[in-house]
Amino acid sequence: MDANEYWIKYKKENNLPDGFKYNGELQFGYDADSINRLNALVLCGVKKAACSTLVSYELDMISVPKKNNYYVLTDSMEQAVCIIKDVNVSIMAFNQMYWELAQKEGEDSSMEEWRESHREYFEDEAIELGTEFNDSSLIVFEEFEVVYK
User: Fold this and answer.
1) Pairing of strands 25-26, 80-93
2) CA distances from 104 to 14, 72, 142 (A)
3) Which residues make Cβ contacts (< 8 Å) with residue 42, sequence separation at least 6?
4) How far is 93 from 53, CA to CA, in rounded Å?
5) Distances (CA, A) of 28 to 19, 53, 76
6) Which of 83, 93, 127, 149 has the most crowded Cβ, counting Cβ within 10 A?
7) What is the predicted pLDDT for the residue at 109?
8) 128-144: average pLDDT
9) Strand order in the sheet with 25-26
10) Domains of the chain, start order
11) How far apart are alpha carbons 147 and 10 in whole angstroms?
12) What's the angle, vertex CA 127, arms to CA 142 and CA 101, rounded to 5?
């Protein structure tokens, strides 16, 4: 089922008004394997957050997520997996991240591992975007909950 069909089903089952809209489709990951692995973490309740660089939103001219935004999470075939709702959104420098928050992403076993994996990803992204990434670069940290699956 595609994202729009899934959203309509969610609204109908929850008696939500026709005008109640979602903020878009969302995928975590960069290839089929990572997308499917991260979706599994979301569905089992381990992954409750995600982060991106602020500059990636700015360059793509996409609004920064806000609390109470709804997204249809999709798999590598762009089929709906679940609906998530942002419960908190923070913007901070990369070097201000702390373990109690970082572990909500459910992917790393320590703050050091989180920093290494995210630094590598964000540095690669910066090259693709033609920008620079460093420890003071701003990141957007989204905490979410699954509201429908």
Assistant:
1) unpaired
2) 27, 19, 10
3) 28, 48, 73, 81, 82, 84, 146
4) 9
5) 27, 14, 10
6) 83
7) 95
8) 98
9) 25-26, 70-74, 80-93, 138-148, 49-53
10) 3-148 (3.10.400.10)
11) 9
12) 20
